[in-house]
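How a chain folds remains the central question behind the approach discussed here. In the encoding step, the backbone of a single protein was reduced to a row of integers, each denoting a local shape. We regard such an encoding as a compact summary of how the chain folds. The sequence in question and its structure tokens are set out directly beneath this paragraph:

___
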Amino acid sequence: MQKTIFPALTLLLVLATTGNLTFAQEGAISPKMLEEIQTSLKMDNYARSMQNAVTNNEIDKLALNRELAGKIDYHFAHTIKTPGITDQKSSGRCWLFTALNVLRPKVVAKYNLKDFEFSQNYLFFWDQFEKANLFLEAVIQTRSRKFDDREVDWLFEHPIQDGGVWTMMPSLLEKYGLVPAEIMPESLNSENTKTMRTLLKRKLREQGMTLRRMNDEGKNYKALEKEKAAMLAEIYRILVISLGTPPDEFEWRYTDKDDKLLNAGTFTPLKFFRTVVDFDLGAYVMLMNDPSREYNRLYEIQYDRNLFDSPNWTFINLPAEDLKRYAKASILADEPMYFSCDVGKQLDSERGFLALNLHDYEAVFGVPFAMDKEQRILTYDSGSSHGMALVGVDTSASGASTKWLLENSWGEDKGHKGFLVMTDEWFGEYAFRLVILKQFLPEDVLAILKQTPGQLPPWDRMF
């Protein structure tokens, strides 16, 4: 066979190279097409200089738009005071840090503290444990479906993650409570989750296959649930060894702004949450700006939760200008908000700026990049990638918002002393989620919460 195939292939290559071959299949790159494409590029002095520059330097630094220098500053008409910058390190826990950063100022004010931080590690432990149960229970519920069923396929592709959204926090707090950071401090694996997350995924996939095999062997639901409990004991063991043991009870001592040492007493995590936070988390609503879907509608995404026995998160889809208006009212009332966006787009991480055309890629390559927000969402080019606390707004003489301040969780050495500044135009193009108190929303928006939500699958772009 080789003696007949290889000469034929050689002949095809010769004919293609000499231009004597007519391709039967439309859509292939023909020699003529390739020649026209190659001759369309004029390697003039500009093209050569850009080739030299780009092949030897970072594209983002070369594309940094000098015209914006000096047009964005760090001054704000109104800023909410925050207790200090946190650092999620190499983990996907921005949602958890951001949610707790929204609550922190309330505790600082209530107890007259210099600074304060909740234990993200404590909540992360229970988040991972609950997500493991959610996956295993979903495997049991879909056990009779074929393995190439889209939902089954999605489950085994995404058995667990360290990312999340605001709405995963309330149910977690109501079940497990909270502890101060010093009671269950960070571990190397909470700050660097990659290896632990990889091992958890591997173990859960193995356990999921075992549950499906048991079903094929005729084992009933009760037997599968019993096996699931034993599997969760293995997950718990991995988490304890990786993150530490969550406390059942602890004593909380703190120093106030007057350097007075105080003993608040002995707490369980649940008692600490109910005593120290003492705030109705149900008073918050998640808003979304997704122009690819109908506005003024309520939506729900399947499996977008961490507890099996908690609801999927829902959101109200609204125009970006509405989100800006409500956010401004919240900031003026000193109420920080959970905010998520596509942070990697048009970011100057050194100066901490987010602005449209901050990187002028068209000037570098001479090629336009022209998709709007809806097109970027539909083609998976843009989506919510990072959560931060929205804590400041600047306004023009007429009172219109011009730029916004974000408290990040990448440490004080990133951005501008741990903060990012986004322009109002960037907000409109790359902001996605905003969690805000109901008191800042009009009645017609709150009425949307009474709608039957549109059901979205877990592979939806907004997951």
